[in-house]
Amino acid sequence: METRSNHVLVGGVVMGLIVAVIAFIIWLSQLSGEDTQRYDIFFKQAVDGLAKGSAVTFSGVPVGQIESINLEPKTPEFIRVRISVRSTTPILQGTTATIQGVGFTGVSQIQLDPAPSGAPPIQCPETDPLSQCPYGVPVIPTKPGALGQLLNSAPELLERVSTLAERLTELLSDRNQASIASILENVQDISRSLADRSPEIAATLAETRTTLRQAGVAAEQIGQLAGTTNQMLNQDGKPLVQDLRKTVQSAERSLAALEQTLNETRPAMNTVATQTLPEVNILVRDLRATSESLRSISEKIDRQGAGALIGSPKLPDYEP
């Protein structure tokens, strides 16, 4: 009788514990279901390090976990990751998701970056919800993270590194090395020549300084001379200018008087030119003819005597 009562007590305690555990599990499941919100994230990159149950953080604060990771048969370049986060997480329009590595373990998690304050929450539209929510839950847009950008740009980076290595190889070829060595030798020769001629260069610089100093003094003297010339022109030049003006005015008056005189004598000069000068020419011709006649008479008297003017000339005697 006593053994039977012990078995009943143990069985009752075990059954009570089982019921309590089941009730606790149900309570947790109900609490978890009411306190979470599901979102889809479409990554156009590899999701290495992510797995079902991986953490989801919002600005570094854990807010949920990954529920599933699925391939998209129609669009194989995308990978759909469904997450569940607490409903109190401010998932607003402008919130973005990135893949962030956790240390050097190879494990990754999803990092949610906050949106500007005041933005509306991300929700499926009432009209045509499949356009923005193809699987019935809102979609959080992605933003390439540092690791994703590095992985995506790795081929281009490797190509650039390879090109750079080829160019360095061409630059450091034997021919270019010989050219560089020759250039360095020439530079060394030039520096040695400059070092040898440093006294001459110093003397040239000293002469240049002296020349510049003398040029400055000469410029100052020229300035003083210009000031003196301006002063002389302003003080002594004014009387000369006034005398010159008076002389010019007198000359203008003389020219006016001469012009008036010429205007008055022009009729008399016209008369002389038209009447007197032709008569004088005739008189000169008559006088020239008279002088020629007188010259012929005088020559005749000289040869034949005064009788030549009265009778005829005497014939010479004839001798047989």
TrEMBL record:
<dbReference type="InterPro" id="IPR003399">
    <property type="entry name" value="Mce/MlaD"/>
</dbReference>
<dbReference type="Pfam" id="PF02470">
    <property type="entry name" value="MlaD"/>
</dbReference>
<protein>
    <submittedName>
        <fullName>Phospholipid/cholesterol/gamma-HCH transport system substrate-binding protein</fullName>
    </submittedName>
</protein>
<keyword id="KW-0472">Membrane</keyword>
<feature type="domain" description="Mce/MlaD">
    <location>
        <begin position="36"/>
        <end position="114"/>
    </location>
</feature>
<feature type="transmembrane region" description="Helical">
    <location>
        <begin position="7"/>
        <end position="28"/>
    </location>
</feature>
<keyword id="KW-0812">Transmembrane</keyword>
<keyword id="KW-1133">Transmembrane helix</keyword>
